[in-house]
Structures are given as C-alpha cells and as structure tokens.
Write a sequence for this structure.
C-alpha cells in the first residue's frame, strides 16, 4: 500500500486556543495551559494567548491529540517584556 503524505493543518494561536487547553513546544515540552487572557492582533503582529505560566504565545500552532503544539513560526515571550 503506498504511503500518503498529508499536509499539516496549522492554525493561528489567537483564534484557536481556548481557555484550559494545554500547549506544548515543537519538541513536546509542556509549557502551560491557556488561562483565557488574549491580546488582539494589530496590523503588524498576530494576536497572543497567555498561559498559566505567565508566558505569552503568538503565531501558528498545530492540534494533535486534543493539545496544541507550536510550529517553527510561533514565538514564546514572557510577560515582563
């Protein structure tokens, strides 16, 4: 049977991650759970989601097994920024 390559489905974190959903780095390291706080997008930056760890994430994410995994284009930054 031939192998079929499927394209990854990536979503914007701001539009997709909801409160109490877990977020992991691309390597599978747990970084936190969404706490429901968001920062709206602007003309130059995508929106952001805050995690219970105090970090903010922005960019594209991929859903696997009911959890969100960051892609190479996503970024993490602390609230002290």
């Amino acid at each position: 049977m031939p192998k079929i390559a499927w394209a990854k489905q990536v979503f914007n974190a701001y539009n997709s991650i909801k409160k109490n959903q877990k977020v992991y780095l691309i390597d599978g390291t747990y970084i936190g759970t969404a706490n429901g706080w968001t920062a709206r997008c602007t003309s130059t930056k995508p929106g952001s989601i805050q995690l219970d760890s105090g970090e903010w994430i922005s960019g594209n994410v991929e859903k696997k097994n009911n959890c969100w995994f960051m892609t190479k284009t996503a970024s993490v930054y602390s609230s002290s920024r």
